[in-house]
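so i finally got all the pieces together for this one. its two components total, 632 residues if u count the protein bits. some of the lines might not be protein, just check the labels. i wanna see the whole assembly predicted at once instead of chain by chain like last time, that was a mess tbh
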Amino acid sequence: MSWLLAAPLIIPFATAVLAFLFRNGPEGRWISVLGSAALLIASGLLMQAVLAEGVVAGQMGNWPAPFGITLVADLLSAVMVVITGITGLAVAVYALADIEERLEKLGYHALFQVLLAGVCGAFLTGDLFNLYVWFEVMLIASFGLLILGGRRQQLDAGIKYVTINLVSTILFLAGIGLLYGMTGTLNLADLHLAVQEVENKGLLTVVAVMFMVAFGVKAAVFPLFFWLPASYHTPSVAVSAIFAGLLTKVGVYALIRMFTLVFTEDVDYTHTILLWVAGFTMVTGVLGAAAMNDFRRILSFHIVSQIGYMILGLALYTPLALVGAVFYLVHHIIVKANLFLVAGVARRIAGSTELSAIGGLYKTAPVLGLLFLIPAFSLAGFPPLSGFWAKYILVKASLDLELWLVAGVALVVGLLTIYSMTKIWGNAFWKPHPAGMQPKLGSLSGRDRASLILPIASLAILTCVIGLFPEPFVQFAERAAAQLLDPVDYVATVLGAEAEGATGLAQLEGIE
Amino acid sequence: MELLISVMVGVMIATGTYLMLARNVLRFIFGLILISNAANLMIFVAGRLTPESPPLIPDGADVPPDIVANALPQALVLTAIVIGFGLFAFALTLVYRGYQSMGTLMSDEMRLAEPEEDRQ
């Protein structure tokens, strides 16, 4: 079992080392593609094990649970790792044509793989402090990727991104310290039991809000999202696609994990804050997007607004709402990464991502038009694409609770999403190119065309498959949500049956 | 002793916050470094302070004596210091590179990545 859990971490790290050694030749990029494919296979095997057994846990170094380093995969973790594998592979293939040799020599592929390792680690760890360490691994790799190449615009964006993320990191660390002081444990499963014995519930809520802010910055929720639209449009397209797909979602995952497993004492208080946050995040994100005039900037603001939907699922905290949150996470990563990849192709053949400087893509590159429409409509929630079901479940969940306003906001934001997508469509695809250019996919070399279009088409097909056959995916999300709401299995698998009852400080007292 | 360190953590966070409110990015980073050290101390205190009792098991015994220092927070702090050191070294280098290429350290003059119409 341990190997299954460790493989999604070992594979990208090993690939990173190899890719760094071969960074000067063409081997590096193929090592990256192979490594990502291996990661996808490993994540598939892990998923198989989790589907069969419910929760899979492993103790690294064989130290028993609350003391050793725990890796644990429940359905949510497993599906997140699979999605990481899928996006990782898609972006690695895309990078074959997108990343210049100059960036490869600086170690692009190694950083990319370290990023994947950090993301997988954050999804699989069962220990709060290790979660911090994995966040750092992910963060330092993302810093490197963001400023790789060192254009002035990137440095500007980098300074904002780095400083704000460091603030959230410190807040996270301080929260860990306080939580440890109260409970005497850092193992998530152990914390689930230990927080129930904390006497000072008020202090626990304070720490919960600290975690909410720390993860809120990572997840880019209102009012902590400003670093995201300031930075995501500056690096290479492959980089911004993997950022858009995965990074903020790690923050959302951490929020879901902490606020279903650990901080469930004062749900009325914490989840009401989350509900307001979700509403404002949806609205500000979509309004920001409406004001932008750059392909990638519009998409960046849409990340923010979509994060709101996922937080909404967590905030409503009913089984159906969590089903929606899980479904939304999976759908969103695929769709959003895909849209950024399309933006990259548009820039490649039409010369810019600024909407006023491009046009005419529909006439000369209709295939790209189709490949844009699928994820764009899915993002806006058109049936029968994946986004429709994700939004449908969440709106249904809020209507069930008779939260009319929230349901209304979710629907209106969907409508405004169509507005932005129409703006991109009208400007980039319909209007003639302002410089009279005839942007064609045929202008790319055959190899470039294949490695740019293949990942986009695959992700678009995946979106259609989820949309047309949602039944198994919804059933899966239902199982995942049930595990989240009732973490008995999770706790029992991590701690083992005999450890029940004695937790954290209680265990220390037992020794004394 | 706990109280003393707690007060010190408070003072460090207050000073750090003051520095972080500055427009100068370098001051911001210095403030951040102060707060990160305060966070490290916070973890240290959270593990309870037990002076002059190292976590050692005497000869012939199976468990340590009654009260020993908690080794775990110290290990955590050590990890956090190492990670923090790496991150801040990176952040300082980045700010220096930014200063070289943009010619300013003032955060409100860093508008290169913002949309055109905002720049006027």
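The interface with chain B takes residues 129, 132-133, 136, 139-140, 143, 147, 150, 152-160, 162-163, 166-167, 169-170, 173-174, 176-178, 180-181, 230-231, 233-234, 292-294, 297, 511-512 of chain A (CB under 8 Å).
The longest helix of chain A spans residues 152-183.
anyway lmk what u think
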